[in-house]
């Protein structure tokens, strides 16, 4: 019977004889296992996160010390509070009761303390105090165990830094993350940290570190998370606190029963559209339970928040009372403004650069009424204070009079508060221009702000991103009370949308696992036609990222990681954009004037102010520092240079441009030789000292220009017509009308002319989308799916990724690849129907029968 | 997970299950075994020989090659036998058997040694019921052909130049290879199986994850 079958295995006949084990003629091997143990790390997500954390926390010792102090601080907070509440005799302290000392009349601090036994008895009797103590004890123990666990883990990372990356902990703070990353990429070639690929890319590392953050950014971008509310008195407001964020992450990513089965993979049932309703129900009930748990734990968390806020902020407020009037970027703002694939430190440095301009912008809007009142209050309070101080100077016994010291303190605080309402005398009212400077740093902004910078609505909306520190603290304090209700009433209704979101926007990337597809920054799949990707994007409205997020994120990533080699289409997009920016900026400077409105110089000067002499600094280095992007960086360099110089010296931009290239191409035009010389002499001083830090500063400037340019272009393109995405897309959006557009299926749809309805009100009933009868119970072509994935997946995407959800490709009966159009199921419009589920989803049955996408692209 | 995974799927009749499984598992293990290592003083080693042997199947028109090690064969047969018992006899059923290659990583004191898988082969089995003898005959040939294709697939996958654990030094050889067998030395492997109803994470893994997550907060 075996004779029928033709295998390549053949029995070796008699000629075969085992060679005798003579020691001398054996083949001898040398083991290579003695190297560093950094190959094949099990959980790369955690590993990279830890590597990043250790870098951000400036090395092992700093981190260790910080954590130890945090633990001690916790103990102190709890202990001190209990002590103050129970062990101090306030009557003695306030001198309402006299101490019967014999020798002296002085009251000392120890006199005010109660004896130990009285104190401990009062603590034991007080149930509430015991409760608080127990809770914090459990909490502290948890932190302690976590700390010990962390120390063990980070010790490994430390040895990874020292042994594999060859960076000692002492010099770690002076390496940029980009340098660390470059070394990791280097290490991969040698040690194979990740076993799926020979080489890691920067994007892989970012994806792993930011896997869940990218999802959150995308969810905020698509207005999926319930953070916008309209409470009766306050008007439109945003409520997004750390507690709420923690709960979201608990529900989606890592809590028990979450959507992800491990750090790197979504549970398979969520990748199939078949039983989405059932899954949505399940999710809704989970959210309900977590909400109830939050409600039950609310008193504990509330007590904790109050204690924590009290001890962390009282000192600050006492030291500089004005800090409450200061502003900070809200948690929501950080999510809204974050690019896809942007690490924490990149975001923070960007936002910090925008801080000054932002607070100046907000200060433009001081209420005139308040100003008048504040001026007068400050006057009266000031005169009282002056008198009191003068009297004190004259005779310090004044201080001994009851309440004099406290009134001096109060008056001081009062004046400081008032002063924050009085605008600076020399302030120039120019909101439009300020907003532009802000935009250069924060990169995102709803369309209708432009031209309306002076309006109060704009200011209010901006204040949602940039809130008072006091408001921030207040929100954190009430968060434990509000969070359960948000979970139970708002988030639960969105469960179907969430299920749809995770199915439609999750791709599996080889060597990375399941990531948010937005984070791939693929213009074709998620570009927005109104944001430069007209004609390149094939995304339906549901798939487009709002506010040009895909495009801007792509630019940002390409600029911060010049070594990164994007897929060809993307490269094309980037180089095209850079070319345009450069041309417009250097050539007729037409955009420049339109970019910066009335005062170009101040704008340019403003964002050139950071790296002062970068234009000359950068010369001559671009070739050696960046392998991939001499084009990109030098383009930007010359653009910048011409910008800065031309604004100083008038017009010789072409000369400067050639000066920029002269260093690399040694080709100087006749009129520009002097400029070239000065430029290169400037650079020669710095040659060799140009660190990547300078480069990164430089990159941020370049990114600013690109962001401004993209926004400007977007404004011109939309041409004043109302953009479809308004600030905070409201629940019933205009996107709910069924938009019919050309079938935007992935490259190679055999039938692209078939119009496909793109909305949920018109579910998926296209003839080509039914994947045909799939034999799954017999030995049809189905078993092949597992072993020959290449044949069906390869044409799908060039960068070997797989999309779940709408894009269900399968091998039809004839062996032909039948690909259903990529029409995502579900969408925005769900909530318009008040959460009721649509009756039928045509594909449900067939999708259910399909085997789960167990195979990976290899 | 930082691990390659390959999936195979076969549809067989009830009585063919163990032979089909044996054929596939042995084929994989044939390529993932080496001869015994004999370490010398200077940190070098020589590799012993591995015998192979042809096995003919009774219920399938198929024969396969396996490492001629009875111990290994016994271990595999035991696992496959358990799998078949768990599947139950006769009626339609689905199951999955997975062969996982891993390496051990020594950890510091508070933690136990980690087993880090680097390659997982999961073989899905559909058991079909056949009505009469004629269908059985057809099935016999068909399954034989299918298995032949699978074997070629396996060889293709194995021939790709992909990650394999580095060759260990003498002290570490237990972390990479299963040295308990006398005549052959396969990479460390585990065989697990699941029957369709229980597909999904077990309670213990969930608990373990929960604890780990709380620690890693």
TrEMBL record, chain A:
It is a multi-pass membrane protein. The chain crosses the membrane at residues 60-85, 123-141, 287-311, 365-391, 403-422. The keyword ATP-binding does not apply. Residues 722-732 have a biased composition (Basic and acidic residues). It comes from the Eukaryota. It catalyses: a 1,2-diacyl-sn-glycero-3-phosphoethanolamine(in) = a 1,2-diacyl-sn-glycero-3-phosphoethanolamine(out); a 1,2-diacyl-sn-glycero-3-phosphocholine(in) = a 1,2-diacyl-sn-glycero-3-phosphocholine(out); a 1,2-diacyl-sn-glycero-3-phospho-L-serine(in) = a 1,2-diacyl-sn-glycero-3-phospho-L-serine(out). Residues 650-686, 720-858 are annotated as: Disordered. Its main location: membrane. Residues 841-850 have a biased composition (Acidic residues). GO terms for cellular component: autophagosome membrane; endoplasmic reticulum membrane; Golgi apparatus; late endosome membrane; mitochondrial membrane; phagophore assembly site membrane; recycling endosome membrane. It is found in: Cytoplasmic vesicle, Autophagosome membrane; Endoplasmic reticulum membrane; Golgi apparatus, trans-Golgi network membrane; Late endosome membrane. Residues 650-668, 763-783 have a biased composition (Low complexity). Belongs to the ATG9 family. PANTHER family: APG9 AUTOPHAGY 9, AUTOPHAGY-RELATED PROTEIN 9A. This is Autophagy-related protein 9. It comes from Hucho hucho (huchen).
TrEMBL record, chain B:
The keyword Iron does not apply. InterPro entries: ATG101. One of its GO terms (molecular function) is protein kinase binding. It is found in: Preautophagosomal structure. Signal peptide: none annotated. Keywords: Autophagy. GO terms for cellular component: Atg1/ULK1 kinase complex; phagophore assembly site. Transmembrane segments: none annotated. Its main location: other. The keyword Iron-sulfur does not apply. PANTHER family: AUTOPHAGY-RELATED PROTEIN 101 (PTHR13292:SF0). Belongs to the ATG101 family. This is Autophagy-related protein 101.
């Amino acid at each position: 019977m075996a004779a029928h079958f033709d295998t390549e295995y053949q029995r070796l006949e008699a000629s075969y004889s085992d060679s005798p084990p003579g020691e001398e003629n054996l083949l001898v091997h040398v083991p290579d296992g003695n190297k560093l143990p950094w190959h094949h790390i099990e959980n790369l997500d955690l590993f990279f996160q830890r590597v990043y954390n250790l870098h951000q926390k400036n090395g092992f010792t700093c981190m260790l010390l910080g954590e130890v102090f945090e633990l001690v601080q916790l103990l102190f907070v709890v202990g001190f509070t209990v002590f103050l509440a129970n062990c101090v005799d306030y009557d003695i302290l306030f001198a309402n009761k006299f101490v019967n000392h014999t020798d002296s009349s002085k009251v000392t601090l120890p006199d005010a303390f109660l004896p130990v036994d009285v104190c401990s008895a009062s603590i034991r009797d007080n149930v509430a105090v015991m409760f608080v103590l127990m809770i914090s004890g459990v909490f502290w123990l948890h932190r302690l165990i976590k700390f010990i666990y962390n120390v063990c883990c980070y010790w490994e990372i430390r040895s990874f830094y020292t042994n594999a990356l060859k960076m000692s902990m002492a010099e770690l703070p002076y390496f940029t993350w980009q340098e660390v990353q470059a070394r990791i990429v280097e290490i991969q070639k040698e040690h194979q940290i990740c076993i799926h690929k020979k080489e890691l890319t920067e994007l892989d590392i970012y994806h792993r570190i930011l896997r869940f953050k990218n999802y959150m950014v995308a969810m905020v971008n698509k207005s999926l998370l319930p953070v916008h509310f309209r409470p009766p008195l306050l008007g439109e407001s945003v409520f997004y606190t750390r507690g709420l964020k923690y709960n979201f992450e608990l529900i989606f990513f890592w809590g028990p029963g979450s959507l992800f089965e491990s750090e790197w993979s979504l549970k398979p049932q969520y990748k199939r559209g078949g039983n989405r309703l059932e899954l949505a129900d399940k999710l809704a009930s989970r959210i309900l339970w977590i909400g109830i748990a939050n409600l039950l734990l609310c008193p504990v968390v509330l007590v904790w928040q109050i204690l924590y806020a009290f001890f962390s902020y009282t000192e600050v407020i006492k030291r500089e009372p004005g800090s409450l009037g200061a502003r900070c970027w809200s948690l929501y703002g950080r999510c809204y403004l974050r690019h896809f694939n942007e690490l924490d430190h990149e975001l923070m440095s960007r936002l910090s650069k925008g801080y000054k301009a932002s607070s100046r912008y907000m200060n433009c809007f001081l209420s005139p009424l308040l100003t008048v009142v504040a001026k007068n209050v400050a006057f009266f309070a000031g005169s009282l204070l002056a008198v009191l101080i003068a009297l004190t100077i004259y005779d310090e016994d004044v201080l001994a009079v009851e309440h004099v010291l406290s009134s001096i303190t109060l008056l001081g605080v009062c004046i400081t508060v008032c002063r924050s309402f009085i605008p600076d005398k020399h302030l120039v009212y120019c909101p439009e221009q300020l907003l532009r400077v802000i935009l250069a740093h924060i990169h995102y902004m709803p369309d209708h702000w432009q031209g309306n910078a002076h309006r109060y609505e704009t200011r209010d909306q901006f204040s949602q991103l940039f809130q008072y520190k006091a408001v921030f603290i207040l929100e954190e304090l009430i968060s434990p009370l509000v969070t359960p209700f948000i979970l139970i009433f708002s988030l639960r209704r969105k469960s179907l949308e969430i299920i749809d979101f995770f199915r439609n926007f999750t791709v599996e990337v080889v060597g990375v696992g399941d990531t948010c597809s937005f984070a791939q920054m693929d213009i074709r799949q998620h570009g927005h036609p109104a944001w430069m990707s007209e004609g390149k994007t094939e995304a339906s409205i549901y798939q487009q990222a709002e506010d040009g997020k895909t495009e801007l994120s792509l630019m940002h990533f390409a600029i911060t990681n010049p070594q990164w080699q994007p897929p060809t289409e993307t490269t094309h997009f980037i180089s095209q954009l850079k070319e345009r920016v450069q041309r417009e900026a250097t050539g007729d400077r037409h955009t420049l004037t339109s970019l910066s409105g009335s005062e170009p110089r101040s704008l340019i000067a403003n964002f050139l102010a950071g790296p002062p002499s970068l234009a000359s600094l950068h010369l001559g280095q671009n070739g050696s520092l960046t392998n991939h992007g001499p084009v990109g960086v030098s383009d930007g360099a010359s653009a910048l240079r011409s910008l800065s110089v031309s604004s100083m010296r008038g017009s010789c931009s072409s000369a400067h441009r050639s000066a920029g290239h002269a260093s690399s191409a040694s080709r100087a035009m006749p009129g520009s030789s002097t400029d070239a010389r000065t430029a290169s002499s400037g650079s020669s001083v710095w040659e060799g000292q140009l660190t990547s830090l300078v480069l990164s500063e430089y990159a941020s400037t370049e990114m600013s220009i690109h962001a401004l340019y993209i926004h400007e272009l977007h404004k011109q393109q939309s041409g004043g017509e109302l953009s479809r995405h308004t600030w905070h897309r409201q629940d019933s959006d205009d996107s709910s009308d069924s938009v019919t557009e050309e079938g935007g299926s992935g490259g190679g749809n055999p039938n692209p002319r078939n119009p496909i309805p793109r909305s949920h009100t018109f579910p998926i009933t296209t003839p080509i989308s039914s994947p045909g009868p799939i034999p799954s119970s017999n030995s049809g072509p189905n078993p092949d799916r597992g072993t020959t994935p290449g044949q069906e997946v390869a044409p799908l995407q060039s960068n070997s990724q797989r999309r779940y959800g709408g894009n269900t490709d399968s091998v039809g009966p004839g062996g032909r690849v039948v690909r259903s159009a990529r029409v995502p199921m579900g969408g925005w419009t769900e909530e318009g129907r008040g959460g009721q589920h649509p009756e039928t989803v045509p594909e449900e049955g067939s999708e259910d029968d399909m085997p789960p996408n167990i195979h990976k692209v290899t | 997970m930082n691990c390659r995974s390959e999936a195979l799927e076969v549809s067989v009749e009830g009585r063919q299950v163990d032979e089909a499984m044996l054929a596939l598992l042995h084929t994989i293990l044939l390529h993932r075994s080496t001869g015994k290592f004999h370490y010398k003083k200077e940190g070098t080693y020589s590799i012993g020989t591995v015998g192979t042997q042809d096995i003919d199947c009774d219920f399938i028109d198929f024969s396969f090659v396996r490492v001629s090690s009875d111990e290994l064969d016994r271990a595999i047969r035991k696992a496959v036998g358990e799998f078949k018992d768990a599947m139950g006899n006769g009626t339609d059923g689905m199951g999955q058997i997975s062969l996982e290659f891993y390496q051990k990583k020594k950890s510091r004191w508070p933690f136990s040694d980690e087993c880090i898988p680097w390659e997982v082969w999961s073989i899905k089995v559909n058991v079909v019921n056949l009505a009469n003898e004629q269908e059985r005959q057809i099935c016999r040939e068909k399954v034989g052909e299918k298995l032949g294709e699978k074997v070629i697939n396996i060889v293709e996958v194995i021939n790709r130049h992909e990650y394999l654990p580095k060759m260990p030094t003498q002290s570490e050889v237990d972390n990479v290879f299963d040295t308990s067998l006398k005549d052959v030395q396969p990479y460390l492997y585990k065989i697990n199986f699941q029957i369709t109803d229980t597909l999904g994470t077990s309670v213990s893994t969930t608990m373990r994850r929960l604890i780990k997550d709380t620690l890693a907060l």
